[in-house]
Amino acid sequence: MKRIFSTREIVLGVTGSIAAYKACEIASRLVEYGASVTPVLTKSATELVGPATFEAITGHRAVIDMFEPLQNPEVEHIAVATRADLFLIAPATANILAKAAHGIADDWLSTTLLATRAPILFAPAMNTNMYTHPATQANIETLRERGGHFVGPDSGRLACGTTGPGRMSDPHVVIEAMLPLLCQRKDLVGKHILITSGGNREPIDPVRFIGNRSSGKMGRALALEALARGACVTVVSGPSETPLPHAAEVIRVETAAQMAEAVLARSADADAIIGAAAVADYRAANAAGQKRKRGTGPVTLELVENKDIIAAVGKTKRDGQFVVAFAAETTDLAENASAKLTKKEVDLVVANEVGAPDSGFGAETLRTVFIDAQGPSGTVELLTKETVAERLFDRVAQALNA
Ligand code: PMT
What we know:
The protein is built from 14 helices and 20 strands.
């Protein structure tokens, strides 16, 4: 996130929907990711949220009135329209959608929307009948045809007490939708990237399983980076608490056999397949159908080997496909990872040290080095998972676009 948001100029337009409170969290996260956020509130938005909140969060004066005395020429509307990298309208009411679709410029926000040539992302929020009304749908269609972008709305319980489409998407979903609009590298447009993520649960009986410590953070970082660069992304994920991007197709599985089936059904159509999952190497030979009772003395569990998914993909890959394995090692990193490169017939291995708290399972960072047929790309470095994903997709894009 930080790489893409850092130093970017975002105009956050807040309009008069009850979902305006969600814009505070969006502003806060954008600032945390290094963006410069100019908050713009319509008059109706100020009935629901205060400008002081946005000013405290962003460090910038909240713009409200078109004709208030100009204290700072930097917020003059044409200056902002020209400077902005992205306009986010969250929440976007039926009213602002109608004004934007019809070129009405009767306040600061609508005037500036007309003046800007930056991408505009709308996060609609309104009552279901207002959202599904043909007038609103026609306005959305018009804005889309002119290059406007939309995230949501979601379906769910609305402030008016009804249930249906019209609920503004959650802040993290809105922020994810901004990534492809801000990312300057568009080298994966039209490419399909298939990623495995998380660990597996191999049942011993209906209540117990063999698992591992994979959090899915690496898979999430990979999916976000690929989406930001314009790819279409499928993630086959084992159980994990890390949220996966809304814009990715996510296939949830539990066991390695389910993961293998899901991956092999999709791998032929993918341009690149990346095995970041900590796939269970073994499963119980005879998982019990009923809960095993204790008190009968020692239990011996017979384990049988699971299919090697990334090796099956590597061995059957077609020309032009790029296959990446991760190698989690506690000793002899380069040697073991190089052996996996050859054995699994993949194009690249992301060798990473696991065992230390700052690297591998659950951590925010990895001690890692890339290894391909030419050998290691350098020495082992401690990198954030985001940076690993960025560097990995530099390699993937280079290979796919060669
Ligand atoms: O999820 P996080 O908490 O963010 O942690 C990330 C990670 C440490 C899990 C990740 O960076 C990582 O290293 N993933 C691979 C872990 C692993 O299983 O390594 P391995 O050396 O056992 O397997 C090598 C490769 O074969 C991997 O691409 C793995 O997905 C694949 N494999 C392994 C066994 C199997 N039966 N099928 C496979 O496809």
